[in-house]
């Protein structure tokens, strides 16, 4: 079977991304150079430019994959829980769980990709994991689990902020600290969403 030029090009891009991710998992994305990626992928640095115009482009591509994986994880939390407050707690826990299980991928995503949204007046990107949070808040309102006059983004942002903040603490300052963070996070997220219910 003949392989097209486009297919070869895509296969090579995937090889480069695979090598880059392996280095990132070993050393952290901030310490990985374009030269190191080229060497791991058995390319010259100049040869990489046919596929990616910079290290940033490679990291952006990898971060996009991580965003999709995170979205899949959050989507599963939505599917596994009926709409309501429990679903919002589950989304927060899924976010934290994904990050703790995939720390370098998570740090790459949020260290490399700023939000494309520039103000509260702009619509949330339909491909953003945050969209799942806002839609679940709306579903909770429709199920009368949250007041219908509440501000959707106030609640969604609070959940996102708690999940992201505690994740960063656990990945950095509290790394190696012995505590049952899962229990604490469940209690905090439950209290947070119940507070919006009253």
Question: Would you spell out the secondary-structure blueprint of this structure?
Answer:
Elements: H1 5-27, H2 34-40, H3 45-48, H4 55-80, H5 85-101, H6 103-112, H7 129-142, H8 152-171, H9 181-197
Helix pairs in contact: 1-2, 1-4, 4-5, 4-6, 4-7, 5-6, 5-7, 5-8, 5-9, 7-8, 8-9
What does the model show?
The chain contains 9 helices and no strands. It folds into 2 domains: 53 residues, Homeodomain-like (Arc Repressor Mutant, subunit A), CATH 1.10.10.60; 134 residues, Tetracycline Repressor, domain 2 (Orthogonal Bundle), CATH 1.10.357. It has 198 residues and is mostly helical.
Give the tally of structural domains: 2
CATH superfamily of the largest domain: Tetracycline Repressor, domain 2
CATH topology descriptor of the largest domain:
Tetracycline Repressor, domain 2
Report the mean per-residue pLDDT as an integer: 88
Label the structural class: mainly alpha
Quote the beta fraction. Answer: under 5%
Strand segment count: 0
CATH class type of the largest domain: Mainly Alpha
Order of helices and strands: HHHHHHHHH
Helix content: 55-70%
Q: Architecture of the largest domain in CATH?
A: Orthogonal Bundle
The coarse silhouette is elongated
Radius of gyration: 20 Å
Largest sheet: none
Summed up, the helix count is 9
Features:
single chain; 198 residues; mainly alpha; Arc Repressor Mutant, subunit A; 2 domains; 9 helices; 70% helix; 0% strand
């Amino acid at each position: 079977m003949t392989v097209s030029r486009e297919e070869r090009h895509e296969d090579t891009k995937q090889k480069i991304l695979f090598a880059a991710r392996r280095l990132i998992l070993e050393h952290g994305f901030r310490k990985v150079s374009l030269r190191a990626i080229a060497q791991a992928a058995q390319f010259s640095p100049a040869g990489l430019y046919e596929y990616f115009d910079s290290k940033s482009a490679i990291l952006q591509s990898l971060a996009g994959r991580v965003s999709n994986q995170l979205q899949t994880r959050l989507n599963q939390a939505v599917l596994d829980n009926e709409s309501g407050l429990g679903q919002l707690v589950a989304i927060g826990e899924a976010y934290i769980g994904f990050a703790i299980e995939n720390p370098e991928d998570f740090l790459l995503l949020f260290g490399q990709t700023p939000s494309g949204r520039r103000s509260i007046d702009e619509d949330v990107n339909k491909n953003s994991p945050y969209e799942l949070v806002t839609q679940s808040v709306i579903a909770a309102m429709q199920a009368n689990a949250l007041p219908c006059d509440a501000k959707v983004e106030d609640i969604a942002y609070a959940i996102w902020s708690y999940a992201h903040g505690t994740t960063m603490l656990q990945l950095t300052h509290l790394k190696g600290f012995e505590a049952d963070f899962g229990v604490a996070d469940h209690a905090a997220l439950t209290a947070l969403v119940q507070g919006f219910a009253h």
